[in-house]
Design goal:
Largest sheet: 8 strands, antiparallel
Number of helices: 8
Bound molecules: fe (ii) ion
InterPro entries: M29_Exopeptidase, NicX
Organism: Kumtagia ephedrae
GO molecular function: aminopeptidase activity; metal ion binding
Shape: globular
Strand content: 25-35%
Keywords: Aminopeptidase, Hydrolase, Metal-binding, Protease
Protein name: Leucyl aminopeptidase
Order of helices and strands: HEHEHEHEHHEEEEEEEEEEHEHEEEEE
Number of domains: 2
Number of strands: 20
Mean pLDDT: 94
Low-confidence stretches: none
Helix content: 10-25%
């Protein structure tokens, strides 16, 4: 994407995020990564009259795995203080799950993560319609006490929902202290720490993130009182187990966020390796009618588990019920207020 077009989509983003004249914005990058993002956001912010600068952290050695929650900001408290004083942080590093992000949000700074390839940002622009659907979903989820997920492949799992808030992601953010991720379009919460029980069968065509692969043969998870007690299957199950074992942290077997996707611009089939170099899978997390469960940390929701071992697993063709009322049936959203109009 050329820099002019990149600036235009960032301008749309900042308008959707309520940026106005005189607001203090900081774009955060590290090393040589995403400097073109900083340029595009800076140009867009200046057109809106924002007071803005680019904070660039030193490069860090590449990690061997996707270890969430560890960032270069940890060693720079004065940088964290500057970010806490801003109105909005545009995070081009990926601070999610870090204590620094939590402190910055708690200080009232809103945060937008933007790390996906520009072509994907352009294809999944935030919109009022998406926001309304996701906010309705968040409202519904926040009132629910029990979530049950089933599938034709044998998934039957129950999450008790008495502890954690519902979190919305609709790809822009205009409220103090609120975080969002561009692109996105889904809703989630977490089960009670000891309140997830049952079986999840990850089926062919479902997606493992951060592995960025489509599953070829079923992976059967057994979950008891909020912890994975068994993972069985073929090659894909072996990959998951080997990945988890490498963290040498039993808390990686905890249950993380759970929810469903609502973005018709996101396509299940588009995660073709090589097509979006550098992408971290926000498109498969967001596709309309997916049901996504996750394993590992729940500190993002306020829980005690801050393990760095995290997998997100969007699944097709599932059914999801809140307090026995259907929300998603066989991979299709069935609540009118959350449906997108085809045509
Ligand atoms: Fe996740």
């Amino acid at each position: 994407m050329d820099q002019f077009s990149f600036t235009e989509i960032c301008l749309h983003q900042l308008k959707m995020s309520g940026v106005h004249e005189g607001e203090r914005l900081i774009v955060l990058t590290q090393g040589n990564e995403r400097l073109d993002y900083a340029d595009a956001f800076m140009a867009a912010g200046q057109r809106l009259g924002a007071k803005m600068y680019h904070m660039r952290l030193p490069a860090v050695p590449p990690a061997g795995a996707w270890a969430v929650g560890k960032t270069g900001l940890a060693a720079m408290p004065e940088a964290v203080e500057a970010l806490k004083a801003a109105d909005m942080l545009i995070d081009c590093i990926f601070l999610l799950f870090s204590p620094e992000q939590m402190a910055i949000q708690a200080a009232g700074t809103r945060i937008l993560t933007a790390v996906e390839p520009p072509e994907l940002l352009a294809r999944m622009l935030p919109s009022k319609a998406l926001r309304e659907r996701v906010e309705f979903a968040g409202h519904l989820l926040s009132k629910a006490k029990v979530m049950r997920i089933t599938s034709p492949h044998g998934t039957d799992v129950t999450y008790k929902l008495n502890t954690y808030p519902a979190v919305t992601e609709y790809a822009c953010t205009d409220e103090p202290g609120r975080w969002d991720h561009w692109p996105s379009g889904f809703v989630f919460t977490g089960g009670d720490d000891d309140g997830v029980d049952g079986t999840i069968v990850v089926a062919p065509g479902d997606i493992l993130l951060p592995q960025n692969i489509y599953v070829r043969d079923p992976i059967v998870y057994t979950i008891e009182k909020g912890w994975i007690t068994d993972i069985r299957g073929g090659l894909d199950a072996e990959l998951v187990k080997s990945y988890m074992d490498a963290f040498d942290d039993p808390r990686g077997k905890g249950m993380s966020h759970v929810g469903w996707g609502l973005n018709p611009d996101a396509k299940w089939h588009r995660m073709v390796p090589g097509e979006f170099p550098g992408g971290m899978g926000m498109e498969p997390r967001s596709f309309y009618g997916n049901v996504m469960f996750s394993t590992g940390p729940n500190n993002e929701l306020g829980g005690p588990n801050d393990t760095a071992c995290h997998l997100d697993i969007p699944m097709r063709n599932c059914s999801l019920f809140l307090d026995d009322e259907p929300v998603v049936l066989d991979g299709d959203v069935v609540v009118k207020e959350m449906q997108h109009k085809r045509g």
